[in-house]
Amino acid sequence: xxxxxxxxxxxxxxxxxxxxxxxxxxxxxxxxxxxxxxxxxxxxxxxxxxxxxxxxxxxxxxxxxxxxxxxxxxxxxxxxxxxxxxxxxxxxxxxxxxxxxxxxxxxxxxxxxxxxxxxxxxxxxxxxxxxxxxxxxxxxxxxxxxxxxxxxxxxxxxxxxxxxxxxxxxxxxxxxxxxxxxxxxxxxxxxxxxxxxxxxxxxxxxxxxxxxxxxxxxxxxxxxxxxxxxxxxxxxxxxxxxxxxxxxxxxxxxxxxxxxxx
Amino acid sequence: xxxxxxxxxxxxxxxxxxxxxxxxxxxxxxxxxxxxxxxxxxxxxxxxxxxxxxxxxxxxxxxxxxxxxxxxxxxxxxxxxxxxxxxxxxxxxxxxxxxxxxxxxxxxxxxxxxxxxxxxxxxxxxxxxxxxxxxxxxxxxxxxxxxxxxxxxxxxxxxxxxxxxxxxxxxxxxxxxxxxxxxxxxxxxxxxxxxxxxxxxxxxxxxxxxxxxxxxxxxxxxxxxxxxxxxxxxxxxxxxxxxxxxxxxxxxxxxxxxxxxx
Lengths: 262, 262
Hints:
Chain A is α/β, with parallel strands linked by helices. Helix content of chain A is 45%, strand content 15%.
């Protein structure tokens, strides 16, 4: 499992405040804490409330890279903000997070992917929105794979995000997302990777951590490769370690759980 | 999810003692406790340490039926002991637990299934043992389905148990069991049900409850219909309730977890 730490996001109050005050310290602490907990990438998102997203992204990437050496997932709604982050990124190959299948956005994202030797998250949505059923989600994924191929981007550099919606808003999407994760593996050889933004499933729900944990485990059971998660959620990390054992992805030892904890 | 309570089994010390002393009280307490926790069936197994399994099974079924009115899963290695339980069973349709695909045993089990209007658990094993890969497990399941059909037993009255082995003994079996659960649904229309004896996955492991819980959730994610479990394990029941929500099998409400707890 590829773990992308979710915490450096302007949607969180502490990060928003640090961005507003240009205070690198809270952000650097979150970066270190997530890297120590085992994150392979750190997602970096300015949040929606900034006037100058490109400038803020540049600053965020710089301050994070001062304290950790793992690569970043540059996360923004606008490609200009993403490019600003890519320009200063230096810790290995960054992830572009993300593009839809909408032609203009996808082409820009693929151009950046190539130019910056990045990996790319493609969302299973287009200008019409997020379809409900797995087949339609896979059809959109296939479009992204095909256009990426025209750009000479290897399928193995693509992550497809089937887009899990909050269970309280669109409960019937959840099993379709599981089915999508399973089907995506059959779309190409080598297949693209799959990724989910886990916490989205439990937005506004009461038992957030439990819902997150159970959905992560079910997604891993059908083949999920990566997830944007709270790597500092200990119960989540224990559930993940156990799922890896049961999927035979890590060798079992009686003390597997203690060994997986850092 | 069909829940079969695992606790009335001579492998547990308290049950073994109660059987030896012919003391119905501890067994009846376990029966009530499991029924109250939401078990749909109660598994009843004399354990291996009795000289007269048929006689003990007769007694066990009688004492359990004095206090609960849910049907039982009559669980024994010998068909004579199972038949003794079936003879006195009166709470609806019992489950015969279980037969392998070995011809003589399977025929006897199917004869009893018909005679007592029972449901039947067929194990994905034959005289050669438990195969590792999903395809071989499914081939054995298919044999059971075919012979059951010759006996006029509807496929929907069959439960196939792919046989999960302890992760510490046969870790590479676990993903094959998940694959088997998923494939079994394609073997017939209507498909047989699938069932696992959950606790087996964690035998002799250190983090038993966590391993049980994670394997149950992954199995549900690929289509599991039933499980023999500790229905009094609250964390397991919470995990199951959450999985049902995420599989859209129960309608989500903010208080789903509280509503699922009895």
